[in-house]
Amino acid sequence: MSASENVQTAPPVVTSAPAPAPRSLTQMFRDLDDGALAATLLDRPDLSEPPPTGFSELASRATTRHSVSLALQRLTAFELWFAGSVAAKRTVETEQVVATYAVYLRDDVRAAFERLRRLGLLWGDSPRLHPVRALASVLATELAAATWPDVPPAPHPPDVGTTRQAPRLVTKVAAGSAYELLVRMEVLLEHCDHLPLRLRRDGAPTSRDVRTLAGLLDVPAAAAIAHLDLARSAGLLGLAADERDELWIPTALFDTWQDRELADRWCNLADAWFDGLPKAGPRWVKELALSAFGDPDEGRVVTAPELKTWLDWQRPRRSGRNDRQAADLLDQMAMVGLSGLGALASYAQLTDVGQLSDLLPGRVDQVVVQADLTAIAPGPLTVQAGRDLALIADVESRGGATVFRFSAESLRRARAAGWTSAQVLETLQNRSRTPLPQPLRYLIADLDRELPKPSASLDPHRRGSPTQRRAGGWTPPGDAEPRVDRDVADAIVQDLRAGSEPSAASDPESHPDTAIAATEPSGIARAPLAALREAAETGEVVWCGYVDRHGERSEAQLVVQSVDEGVVHAEDHRTRLSIALPLHRVLAAHILRSGR
Description:
The protein has 596 residues and is of the alpha+beta class. Strands 18-17-16-15-19 form a 5-stranded antiparallel beta sheet. A 4-stranded antiparallel beta sheet has the order 11-12-14-13. A 3-stranded antiparallel beta sheet has the order 1-3-2. Helix content is 43%, strand content 13%. The protein is built from 26 helices and 19 strands. Helix 2 (25-31) packs across helix 4. The radius of gyration is 33 Å and the shape is elongated. The chain folds into 4 domains: 25-145, no CATH class; 163-359, no CATH class; 368-454, no CATH class; 504-591, SH3 type barrels.
């Protein structure tokens, strides 16, 4: 056997043909795998409400000016620069752009283009992308207001948090603030239970009530309003009405909130802060601010100027952007107990609050009654003890130990709620660790010498008439952004796959009569709107069958400019004349493509 006969021939290498580039944004969405499509819905939550019925509808929503504007708010300064640089182009050769900045930005440029593609602001395959038409018009203001810089901003966020604090000390200080918030919130709600806040015609509390509440909580007036907003956002404070005015009183949810463990109660308030205080921005802005601190174990201290620089790079187009936003965010994070000493607490992400539970004091059910008509609670009271003391005494000061003061007015409040002097005396004897002083006994006995006063039309005690209490909470105003949970996004993806309309490749395009017939119930292509919108994005010529103004069937080959407010704006492919065609006259449409 010759040597040549011993040589084995290598098997042929089988290579799969590369996937064809998507011909439209609709096709690109359809070609994404389930995980990538769900990620797009999570990044652009406005596309999910209501759930789209098909990929054409999804693409149509994604190319509206409003939706594109919302998507641009998700871009970093680096990504926004590339969006503005390519917005007016018909086609972007990505490798040419990469080569331009290859010295120091090669991977970052590719990542920016991929981010724009995954958001649906660019469509196509990675080597060749096409901006959606609305991108240029939405960015027109920025492009006209200033010269777009030739060199993009830094591809990575600025460094923040060069100063450090001990992480354990940070968490202890933050836990103290969290406990302060719980005490203040309970004092606020008990106060509103006994003396409901009357609202002005504009729906805000009176200045006098705000000053009273600020003194009671020992905080500035602005912070008192923030506590009110937080209580409303958490559903603990709601609207009621008497014969004349609207009032704020605790909701039925307050009763169940008090029954929960302290850490769980705090989580409810912290989550309400993320969603319900629009002054510092919507939830995603607050979550972005928390990410500036990095790992809480590093103890990074972030200042207001640093946070502003961070946010300006991360989301340069965010709504509500102003110089005070960063300072407001840091102040509110400290008030809520998410931060301490300027750094982030270990439990701030709300994923595990076990450490907070260990740092909060245990509940007590007794107080120390003193001869000066005060009582000291050495820790947070149990639910029933707190209700008893709040009804028959007023909070004088709070802190690690809350001080209550008894007065003739506070005892009359208990009488108005239906308590007898004997019940008041028995309750205090059970709640006091020390014998009741004689002055307090005399004050209680004086209740029997006074004529009972008629109770108010609105029963101040929570165990009163439930019809005067609103079961639900308050929906926060402002710029809250729609949110989509992962399971919802996954469900929408599955529905899109299950009800996916035929792709553009299967549309009848060979003969106009076929397209006209497709408008019948037995036809195939029943979505001319989808074809027109796709043609507006791709710039391809579309055959259109329609009814003219005389009621006769006609046809034309169009270059579609836009489909807005029920009108197709286009140019005749042959004559170059502009056409405005009412959408309800269109019978059928399909894109004319070669190679079929």
